[in-house]
Amino acid sequence: MNINDYRNAMDHIVPDNDLRKRILCQKKPQNRYVPVRRILACTLTAVLLLTCGTCVALAASPKLRTAVLSFFHLKEREHVPGQNDIPQNSTDQTETEQPSVVSPDISQASIGDLVKAQYIEMDQYYGLSGSLLNQLTWSDDGRTLLDAKFWELRDNDLIPVQPDMQTSKIDITFRDIHYQGSLYWFIRNGELYFFQGTPYGVDTHPEDEWYVETIPGHTDVVLLKLAQGSQIEYTEYPMLYYPGTGRTEDFLAGTDAEQLEHAYDYSWSKDMRRVLISCSVGTDGLQEWLCDLDAATLTRLDELTGMGENVSAGFADNDTLILTTHTVSKDETWMTVTCYAYDIPTGQTIKTLDETHFYRWWDEPYGAQLFGTRCVLIDQDGQVRLADLKTGTQTVIEGFRYQAGDNFMPSPSGNKLLYYASDSGTDGLGITQLGVADLDKGTFIAFDRDGYENLYEEGIGWSSDSTVSIRARSSDRETQYLILYTF
Questions:
Q1: What is the pTM of this model?
Q2: Residue 388: pLDDT over 70
Q3: Triad 10, 454, 409: Cα angle to 5°
Q4: CA–CA dist 430, 424 (Å, integer)
Q5: Does the pLDDT of residue 33 top 70, yes or no?
Q6: Sign of the CA dihedral running 390, 391, 397, 402
Q7: What phi and psi, each to the nearest 5 degrees, are found at residue 152?
């Protein structure tokens, strides 16, 4: 598992009951607002950053506009199969297909004719590369990929496939450190998938501290992150890396971004011509900068907005930031949040959320949950509204009431919300209800689940913009389960 696999895995992890209790005892606040998913796309569109002083032009807040999203609770319940409930793979094969050579057993179900479920039972852990299951074999030192097998899920069987796996060498010296290693990758259905070794042990050197991130919509280039230091001394710097040629490009050169100390997070606009850079200052401090690649400018966020050091930001689009400020209690727990849409070229700011109670599941489970440009607003009576933090538009979910144990998670595009309810009396997540709110279609479909208590459900998340996955295991840890839902 490399650091990117770890981050992807963390997207699928939700705390179980024991961890929730420990968090409850600590009662830590959310430190800053960060969009859960950043959409990255690289174009050559030029945008001009006008110089803005500390005076912010505040426009009138938009009038509250309310739309309605209909909640549809399916009458049909899902019956989650446990161990020994999933039938063996079918032995009927077409002449052109090779029989599956892996152990997973597969079954399918249709829930209310609107949701397709696929249940995969495995005797060991298999990874996911888009729609492909994978099994990787690494060398003892964790640096070299010795073998990679892939299978495509077709109906009730897994069919071996052979992607055109390529190997590229990372070899670059930056800040007196020589970064090197191998990147393994292939392209399938217009998407790039990659693998990177993760060496551990006493022989691990700084040159091992690099990782890459894909740029959605592009298969010729990835982001290469070069890391140094650890804990409060940790810093990283991004470059463009072209796997096909091995070329590396320092595309932040000339902006002074390379001079920032302890920069650890980079949040990009969609066209990647602007970036928010977060830097650690001491043990608890945070400083955020806005870098414009076309104008070659680097500006502190608090100076740009005039809102002080407690303001945080995320991109709504290429020219718009969502700014968030908050009030805190004596123990530094977030109490209220206020959000603004900030137009970078003009410096105009519009308030879209005004001093709203901040949601705290351990204390008072109502208020605002922030998800990038989206916000889930939960009233004290359980009524739920979805707010667009750029426009101020609010959408009421009609026929749905929030209850303790309910959770939301945005899709990679941000246009859908995964909804799930958990049973606090079971081990693991214990997901009793599952659904998806499609903000573009204006629909919210959910269904109840039976049999979840037969498995230890470890994690839930988005596998793609239309597919939700649940990872689970048997109580004896001998059997792994992957459940895929297509809405």
A1: 0.79
A2: yes
A3: 30
A4: 7
A5: no
A6: positive
A7: -100, 135
Q: Provide mean pLDDT across the span 289-314.
A: 94
Out of 22-26, 46-50, 483-487, the most confident range is 483-487
pLDDT in tens, 118-148: 999 988 888 889 889 999 999 998 999 999 9
> Could you write out the DSSP letters of every residue in 206-255?
GGG-EEEEE-TT-SS-EEEEEEE--GGG-EEEEEEEETTTTEEE-TTTTT
Asked if 183 and 172 touch (Cβ cutoff 8 Å), the reply is no
Give dist(CA 196, CA 2) in Å, integer: 6
367 pLDDT tier (thresholds 50, 70, 90): very high
Q: Three-class SS of residue 8? A: helix
Q: In the numeric block, which tokens belong to residue 476?
A: 């004896």
Residue 65 has a pLDDT of: 57
Strand-pair partners of 468: 462, 485
DSSP string, 28-96: PPP-----SS----------------S--EEEPPPPP-EEEEEEEE-SSPEE---TT-SPPPP----TT
How is residue 144 written in tokens?
């070299």
Higher pLDDT among residues 264 and 99, named by residue: 264
- What does the alpha-carbon distance between residue 283 and residue 427 come to, in Å, rounded to a whole number? 35
Q: How far apart are CA 278 and CA 269, in angstroms?
A: 14
AA letter at 394 = Q
Q: Which pLDDT belongs to residue 85?
A: 57
For 27, residues 6+ apart whose C-beta sits below 8 A from its C-beta are 331, 333, 362, 363
